[in-house]
Structures are given as structure tokens and as C-alpha cells.
Amino acid sequence: MKTETAALGPKKVTGSVVARPNRTASVQTYIPEIAKGLGITMKHFFQNTKEMAFGQRPDPVTEGISHGINTVSYPEQKRPYPARFRGVHRLTHRDDGSPRCVACLCCSTACPAQCIHIEAGEYPEGDPKRGYERFPKRFVIDELRCIFCGFCVEACPCDAIRMDTGVHAAPYDSREQFIFEKDILMGFPGRDGSQLTANPRHEPGESSHPGVDREKH
Amino acid sequence: MPLTLLTFLLFVLKAFVVIMFAMNVAVLLTWADRRQGAMIQDRVGPNRAVAWIPTIAAQVLAVAPALAAVAGIAFVVVKLVPDPEVKGERAMLFAQLGILFTWLTGVFIAGRVQIRGVQNSFDAWLLSFGDPRRIFYAGLAAHFIALFVGVGLSGSAYGEQIRDLGYGGGAGLLIFAILSGAIYAAYVIRNEPRYGLRLVGLLHPAADGLKSIFKEDFIPPNADKFLHSLAPFISFFPALVVMGVIPFGDTLCFTLKDGHLGDLMSFVPRSGVCVEGAVNLQVVSLDVGLLYFFALAGTGIVGAALAGWASDNKYSLLGGVRAASQMVSYEVTMGLTLVGAVMVYGTLRVDEMIRWQSEHAWGIFVQPAAFFLFFTAAVAESKRIPFDIPEGESEIVAGYFTEYSGMKFAMFFFAEYIAVVTSSGLMSALFLGGWDLPFLHRDGLHVVLGDTVIFEQVLPHLLVVVVGALGFVLKTVTLCWLQLMIRWTLPRFRYDQLMRLGWRKLLPASLGNVLATGLIVLTIASAGPAVGKFMDLLADYTKALVALAGFGGFIYFVVFLVKPVHKKKSLASTSAQFAAAAGGTRSVRMGA
């Protein structure tokens, strides 16, 4: 059997020949092209200057696809974060102003950065909630350790922790200031300005409470 | 005039004016260059510099100049009541000025209200007219109505009443407009704890200068310390002093009182320059004017070369050598280009050249090729983009000023911008008629084409000179602006391309220009009076062309300003929806 050997020498180049760009007289003399270029820069300059002076600049967010200067002049102007942006955490409230959190530790268990610390407390004897749920004596999030993955929000069975504040973590000047205690976390409202959530909550003992009832069963 | 204390003081004053002009324009250019470059690229640029002043100081700053202006106007109206013959003209002037300032104030306030929103009932009332353009159109209509009423009724029975009404009413309107604008500005900021003086970012160069002064001045250990410190001054000084031979205004004529300067003449004849009592608006009037320019501009090379040599840095040395070779090459073209212009004007004195252009046609029409060659060479001479290979950031760090810091570094840049100003000043003097404006002669306005007289109006001497000086400033600043535009448009040349352009294109072209100019000058000189008369007519038409182009450009600019802008709104993103719900990005406050 005959073996095929590669031909010696350089490999044959395949492809089509690309013609040199046809340099017209106007390109070669350079001057008309300069004039064209100057025309373009002047157009942008005058248009942008006029829009700036007359306050006709496009809104950088709502009209950002228009021609003109679309720079966001931070901090006078701020681009609002999108609706699903994961910002600083907040602890949602019940109707009576207490946290919805039942101290189940799901969030701190789910947290890959281990930045959530909860100390659970029992309701006092005789409280209708005692035995059904606990409450967080302390609820601490280290916003510097947090990687803003949102797992805590996913893990929460009570819709008690949310990241819908639309606020980024502010730059403080010491590490202690990044450790948000319960009162700080409960202070943030959501995007809509409310401390509550849209999900209804049914307290133990209420007729609408869907779970197993200690008294009836 | 003999050298007396007065002439010496005048010399110092003129030198002060010229140096202040060149340096201030240069300082502004350092900022305008960046700001303008940003605007071209759809960015905002350096506009954040702000000086916080107490609100009361800002209110005083707003109201005090207005009060001074009002006092001046009131003085002119009450004390300097003109003769009945010229009272009509004065009344028309007041009426037009009053209308102008009224609609300007209205448009300005309405525009600000549109930007920042309605704050008080006056804002709401002003916006009830709708678009601020309507105020402008109403003002335009008022201008024409006043003009027609004034001209149409000047001879009629009501002429005198109309004239007095225009005189008093126009001045009243002017005072009202100025005062109300200033008081409104002071009223709007009354509740602000402090006022940020921004001046569209004009404070930026001042901040930059302060910063440069306080920065560390580093000299490399092995550098030649004396030469290293000397170089910035050597490149700075010649760039500044060449302004000395460029006249910034027509000669002022004073009467003579026993050998001393008396009062300024009210009116002067059209032809001839007053021999005695003349004050040239030029620091030194040299017979060798243009040669002085080249002699000193050539010295600037030494500064760059010295900086490169004394820095003890290979990149600096390369930059210095590049700068020297480039500037020497283009110096040749610059000189030879102007030979043609000197042949036509027949003088080396810059003021005489402007007078020739005033009598005939501007240099740009007489020597068009020379203008473009000189412009190119001047840009190359100032070592700016597209000819900035001595600096060459991408190849040799920063070229000859690599090892400079602080104010010495700033002085190189300052020298570069002053070179831009001086070369623009020289170009406007040599090719754009300097202080000369079309049809504006020493004794007034004469719109004359050949033998056809279209319009004539005698104007006071001082007014003509001041308007001419303003014209010179306008031309110079426009040419500076053009150089900045070129900087932001063109890419950098390669070194061999630069040399080829200089020696093989511009130099032969300038020699050809000399040859062609010589032939044409000889032909016209030997052709007889008929051709000379025709050339004069052509020269008048170039003046008309300039005037029409200027007028047309102004109209086009106004139309451009009032043209509405259409924006494309897109609420595809939730960010945009949030911003729209908050009434625009400006008013969005993040978080609670």
C-alpha cells in the first residue's frame, strides 16, 4: 500500500486576492477628508454644547438611546437600580411592627459566605405564638462578608428577609459599621416604600391560619 | 513721539494688555481644549470645579453690576440729553436695546425654569407662555415693529412724541430688564445655604494652576539642574513676547496740547493716519515686525531641545531632537509662505499689512494658498496634534518634558497654548485683516462696491477702534478654536510622514506660491489702470462676501439654536421605568 507523503515546501495558500482600497484623488490630497472630519467633530460639538446650554440634554436613563451626551452626572443624577437588583438586606415587618422572622436559621444555613448570625429567642409562657415559632433576639448581617447571592432570600420560608431595597451598601470608613444589626435591617423600606410584603401572614390562633392548630388537633 | 514718561507708561500699559490677553486666552484654552474634546465625544468634560460662596455674596455679585449698569444708563439718559437731531437715533438705540435685553432676560429665565422646574408663581407665569422660543419670536417681532414705527413715523406729526416715547420708554425698558433679571437671580437663590460658583467650569484652569504650583518639583539626580530649570522659561518667553508686534486695534488719534497728548478725537478722516498724537494699539511698532516674529519664534526651539538634553533621560533626548528637527523644518515653510504675502503688501510692518488689507482685500483672498500653508506650518510649529511627535505619548512617554513635574511641566503646556494664541493672532493680522471689519473704515461705515455707494454712516472714532479691536479678538479666538478642533479630529503623523510633508510638499508649495505671486503682481502692475480698477472692485466684492458670510452664519446659528430637539424615549429597562416614574433621572434619590 502506497503511503501518502506531504508535499515538501511551503503550504499552498488558498484564498482570494483582496484589491487595494481605491484611493481617490480626494483621499490622496487629504484636504477634503480633513474638512469632512472637522465637519463631524464640529457638528457634535455645537449640537452637544447647545443641548447642554439649553437644558435639552437627553435624560441619560429614559432617553439613553438618543444622540447626544448621555453621561450620568453622578452623584447629582443616579441611575436607578433595576427592579431585580439585589441590594442591602431588609427584614420585613408584620402588621404590628415586629419582624416576620421566626428564627428558623434557614438563611444563615443557606448563606455560603456565613455572614448571617441569628440568636433565637422563645416567646414567653402564655403567648399564643409560643411553640409555633421563635423570634430573633439578634439578627446580624456582615455586609462586607455578604456576596449578595440572594440565597438567604430564596431560603426564607416566611418572606422575612428581602434584598429589594434598591440601595447599594454605602461605603463606610470602618469594618464595624458594615455589621448591620436587627434595628438597622428593619429600618430599610422596600422599593415601594413599604416595610411590609405583599404576601399575607396568618398569625397562630387566627382563623385564617392554615397550619396545624394545637388546640383543635 | 519722543520717549517721555507718558509714552513709557503707555508702553507698559499696552504690554500689560497684550500679555494678559495672550495668557488668559491660553489659560482658558488649556481648559477649553479638554472640555471641547469631551463634548465632541459626547461626554461632559471638566465642568465640576466650583467655588462655594455665601448666598449673600452671590446675591451681591448678581445685583451690584446691574445697579452700576442702571446708574450708568440713568446718567446717560438724564444728564447727556442729545441734540434734537440725534435724539431720534438715540431713541431708536434705547428702544432696540430695551427690547433686546427684555427678551434675552425672559428667554434666559424661562430656559432655566425649564431645566430646574417651577419654583414660584413667577416661574409658572413665565412658563404659561409655553416654549421659551415664543418669547424669542415675540422679541424679534417687537424689534421689527419698533424699527418700522421709528422709521415710518419719524417725519410725521407724531414723530416728536414717538421719539420721546422711544427715548424714555426704551431706556426704562432697558433698566427694567437688567434690574428684574438681576433681582430674580438673587431671589431664586435666597433659601440656599451657600451658592456654588461654577461658571460652566471656567474655574477649572485656576484649580489646575494652583495644583501645579503646589505639586512637587522633581529634578532627576543626574540632570543638569540649571539648564533643566531654565528650559521651561526659554520655551515660555518667546511664545509670549511675539504678541508685541501684533497690533490689536487701529491707531488711536489724540489732539495735541503743547506737545502733550490731549483728548481723544471724536471723529477722524477716512484716509491717512494721524502723525502727531497717535497711539498705536501695538506694543512696539517695528519696521522689521515680521522678522522679529520669526527671530523669537525660532528661539522656542532652544527651549524644547534644552529640556530634552538637560533631563538625563533617553526619551527626553529623543523628544528634544524630534522637536528641534520638526520646528526647524516647519520654520522654513512658515518663512517662505509669508514671502508671497510680503510681496503683495509691500511691507514687513504688521500694522501696515493690516492697513493694506483694509484698503484692498483680506489676505485670505489675496494669498489663499499661503494661508493654508501657514496654518499647517503654524500647527506643526506649536507641536500639537497631528504634529505632536516630539511629545509622542505612545512612543516616548512624554517626549522632551518627560522629566518635568509641577509648574515647570505646566509651563511647557502653557507655552504651547500661548504659541497657539500668538500664531492665531498673527494669522488673523496677516490673512484675516486684523482689526479690519468689512466696510468699517476709520470714519465710519461705508458700504461701497466700486463706485456704487449703498450705505454710509459716520461713526465716532472710539467706537470704530473698539469694535475693530473686538473683531481682532473674535478672529483670534476663532482661529484658536479651529486649532483645537483640528487637534480633536486628526490622528498623529508618523515621523517620516511629518518630514515628507514639511520638506517635499509644503516647502515646494510655498516656493511655488512665491513664484505665482510674483508673476501675478507683475502682471497686474503692468496691465494698466483698467485692470487695477477691476481688481479694486473685486476686492470690494470680497469684503461684501465676508460680510454676507458673517451675516448668513449668524442667521444660520440662530436658526440652529431655535431648532427643536427630538429625543427617543425608551422604557425597556426597569431602571428607565423607575427613572420615568420619578420624573426623570435628575430627581431620582436612591433609597429612602
Using brief descriptors, characterize the structure shown:
heterodimer, A: alpha+beta, Alpha-Beta Plaits, 3-stranded antiparallel sheet, 5 helices, 5 strands, B: 592 residues, mainly alpha, 7% strand, globular, disordered C terminus
Task: Report on the architecture of this protein.
The complex is a heterodimer of chains A (217) and B (592). Chain A is α+β, with helices and mostly antiparallel strands and 217 residues long. Chain A is built from 5 helices and 5 strands, in the order H-H-E-H-E-E-H-E-E-H. In chain A, the strands form 2 sheets. A 3-stranded antiparallel β-sheet of chain A has the order 2-3-5. A two-stranded antiparallel sheet of chain A has the order 1-4. Chain A is elongated, with a radius of gyration of 32 Å. Among the domains of chain A are: 27-79; 90-187, Alpha-Beta Plaits. Chain B has 19 helices and 8 strands. Chain B has helices at residues 5-40, 55-79, 84-116, 121-127, 132-152, 159-188, 203-214, 225-241, 289-310, 314-345, 350-359, 363-366, 368-381, 393-396, 406-430, 461-489, 495-527, 529-562, 574-581, and strands at residues 51-54, 194-197, 249-257, 260-264, 278-281, 440-441, 444-449, 452-458. In chain B, helix 3 runs parallel beside helix 6 (159-188) and helix 9 (289-310) packs antiparallel against helix 10 (314-345). The chains are: A alpha+beta (217), B mainly alpha (592). The interface between A and B is large, with 50 and 42 residues.
* Apparent shape of chain B: globular
Instruction: Give the radius of gyration of chain B.
Output: 28 Å
Strand order of the largest sheet of chain A: 2-3-5
CATH third-level topology of the domain at 90-187 in chain A: Alpha-Beta Plaits
User: Mind summarizing the main beta sheet of chain A?
Assistant: 3 strands, antiparallel
Calculate the mean pLDDT score of chain A and round it.
Answer: 85
Distance between the termini of chain A: 89 Å
Helix/sheet category of chain B: mainly alpha
Q: Helical percent range of chain A? A: 10-25%
Largest sheet of chain B: 3 strands, antiparallel
Strand content of chain B: 5-15%
Strand content of chain A: 5-15%
Structural class of chain A: alpha+beta
Mean pLDDT score of chain B, rounded?
84
Task: Indicate the overall shape of chain A.
Answer: elongated
What strand line-up does the widest sheet of chain B have? Answer: 4-3-5
CATH architecture of the domain at 90-187 in chain A: 2-Layer Sandwich
CATH secondary-structure class of the domain at 90-187 in chain A: Alpha Beta
